[in-house]
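If your schedule permits, I should be very grateful for your opinion on a structural question. I have a record of one protein: its chain in single-letter code and its fold written as discrete structure tokens. Kindly check, if you would, that the fold set down in the tokens agrees with what the sequence suggests. I remain grateful for any guidance, and I place the record below:

***
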Amino acid sequence: MQLTNGIVLFLFVIAIVLFFWGTLKAMKTQKKVYLWAMVPMGLLIVAMFML
């Protein structure tokens, strides 16, 4: 499967948005379930080191 620049950029933007949304929501509500929104960012960081 060939990843184009547009797809990679889209995935990056989605990961960033989910990261900050999850962080803000977790801080406001004090519920740890929203920390799962940080998983895509962690996977993105791991993928950058693997490539």
Remarks:
- Residues 5-50 form one domain.
- The chain has a mean pLDDT of 84.
